[in-house]
Amino acid sequence: GAGVSQSPSNKVTEKGKDVELRCDPISGHTALYWYRQSLGQGLEFLIYFQGNSAPDKSGLPSDRFSAERTGGSVSTLTIQRTQQEDSAVYLCASSRKDINQPQHFGDGTRLSIL
Amino acid sequence: AQSVTQPDIHITVSEGASLELRCNYSYGATPYLFWYVQSPGQGLQLLLKYFSGDTLVQGIKGFEAEFKRSQSSFNLRKPSVHWSDAAEYFCAVGGTSGTYKYIFGTGTRLKVLA
Fold first, then answer.
1. Cβ–Cβ < 8 Å for B78, B62
2. What is the C-alpha to C-alpha distance for residues A18 and A15, in angstroms, rounded to an integer?
3. Do the Cβ atoms of A47 and A34 come closer than 8 Å?
4. Which residues make beta-bridge pairs with B37?
5. pLDDT by residue (tens digit) across B36-91?
6. Which of B22, B14, B32, B18 has its CA nearest to residue B89?
7. DSSP string of A99-114?
8. Does the structure show a pLDDT above 70 at B95?
């Protein structure tokens, strides 16, 4: 289909390792968002891209988290020196540029830190 | 600060019964409001949205929601629940204060009895 695609769907890694999560938005969607869904914490906003720039990074929990977007399309969320509290489902969403356009979500990456 | 409250963590209904999921928000002006549904292992699927106009909004899968400004509520309803409606439901506020991020409620998990 033509939905938001995320990879990998599952990732298990050891504490202290770095991980990269990928998001491929819907074609033509200029806005891209990352959220984290943790047990008992609900969904929390991490970062928002408009094109390749990130006007709102306010949700990134620490400097171990970073994200980039290239070509106004694919985005990568990187977590360095992973900790057990980073275990969660990381969801990506995209939308058209206009503020009243709904966000469309991918199926997420389930990250487990051992 | 903007916030969304879903007071019911779990709801159980019998198949064929009516359903109402509650959502209250806190915001100084009229927000953009959304309901999403999440099945296990899946991302979030948009059920319906409210931006302006008619306060009764129709969505997919037979769902509707009513925006009540005086009560700061946006409750989701369905007249007759099907077993396939069992999932987690999230209310969200978005597109407010010039930002694009959504603020999500903590979700309501719906169980449907046969």
1. yes
2. 9
3. yes
4. B45, B89
5. 999 988 889 999 999 888 899 999 999 999 999 999 999 999 999 999 999 999 99
6. B22
7. TTSPPEE---EEEEE-
8. no
- Tokens, residue A60: 């990134």
Phi, then psi, of B62 in degrees rounded to 5 = 80, 10
> What are the structure tokens assigned to B36, written together?
């999403």
DSSP state of A102: P
Nearest residue of chain A to residue B44 (CA atoms): A105
On chain B, the residues whose CB falls within 8 A of the CB of A99 are 32, 95, 98, 100
Chain B hits for A43, CB-CB cut-off 8 Å, are 90, 102, 104, 107
More confident residue, B5 or B29: B5
Residue in B32, B101, B106 nearest the CB of A42: B106
d(CA A78, CA A64): 8
Q: What count of Cα atoms within 13 Å lies in the side-chain half-sphere of residue A74?
A: 7
Nearest to A103 by CA among A43, A24, A26: A26
> Helix, strand or coil for residue B84?
helix
**Residue B79, H or E segment:** none
H or E element that contains A43:
strand A42-50
Q: How many helices (H) and strands (E) does chain A have?
A: 0, 11
- What percent of chain A is predicted at pLDDT more than 90? 76
CA–CA distance, A95 with A71 (Å, rounded to integer): 16
